[in-house]
Amino acid sequence: MSRQGNVYIFLGPPGSGKGSLSNICVTDLGWLQLSTGNLCREHIAKQTEIGKQIDFAIKSGRLVTDNLIVEMVDKWLEECFATKENVILDGFPRTVPQARALEALLCNRFNFVRTSNVKLLIEDDEVVARLMGRYICSNDKCQAVFSLIDGSGLKPKRHMFCDACSAALVRRSDDTEESIRERLKAYHQHEDKLLDFYKDQGQEIIELDAHRPLNMVFEEFKGRLGLKGV
Ligand code: AMP
């Protein structure tokens, strides 16, 4: 049988719920998630050479250079297609050069893969409110995301501890209002060109209203991608 694979590219601003939607796909559908942000934070926590180079960019809300990010994704895709068929790219590509590099990578080495683009829609002010209430697991291998905002479906079961691995919850170093605004600026600077890149290639971008509770977003996601009953 010929080899098959799917890459789901999650687009949308920071705080739009790409990570949370990825998590539910991982737990309910058995997919794999690559969050380039998580990979960057792992490098920083381990104080690798890459980690030292990117620490400042991350804290100040700027983008890491395309070359470093593409190198990380390249290595990761190689490992993940050895075991899984469905892969989510969460937070990558963020720029047109990254999108071009991904396309070349898939074309040259993973030509059995089909891509789908999914964009989460949300306003900037809601992003700021969400991220100011966000906490993540301090275990760099886990980095599960929670929210302390009243009524959020992402509240931890035990206050300030991770549901998945019981490690303490912490704020991300870049979840300050200044850095959040900087990240939104970086996002909007590249957003239109990135969307045009995919549209010019005739690729559909599936848009989901991300204001709603996560389970509703997930149900629509499955419906729009023909995954109901999976
Ligand atoms: P995230 O966890 O997706 O919000 O990403 C956190 C930070 O990691 C971003 O603000 C960037 O500094 C860096 N980062 C993550 N993904 C990328 C990417 N695809 N290109 C450049 N920088 C990235």
How would you describe the overall organization of this protein?
- It is a single chain.
- This protein is an alpha/beta fold and 230 residues long.
- The protein has helices at residues 18-29, 36-46, 49-60, 66-80, 96-109, 124-132, 177-200, 214-224; strands at residues 5-11, 32-35, 86-90, 113-121, 134-137, 145-147, 169-170, 205-209.
- The strands form 2 sheets. The chain has a 5-stranded parallel β-sheet with strand order 2-3-1-4-8, with helices on both faces.
- It is globular and about 50 Å long.
- The mean pLDDT is 93.
- Adenosine monophosphate binds next to α2 and α3.
Give the secondary structure arrangement, pairings included:
Blueprint (H helix, E strand, L loop, with lengths): L4 E7 L6 H12 L2 E4 H11 L2 H12 L5 H15 L5 E5 L5 H14 L3 E9 L2 H9 L1 E4 L7 E3 L21 E2 L6 H24 L4 E5 L4 H11 L6
Parallel strand pairs: 1-3, 1-4, 2-3, 4-8
Antiparallel strand pairs: 5-6, 5-7
Helix pairs in contact: 2-3, 4-5, 6-7
Adenosine monophosphate binds next to helix 2 and helix 3.
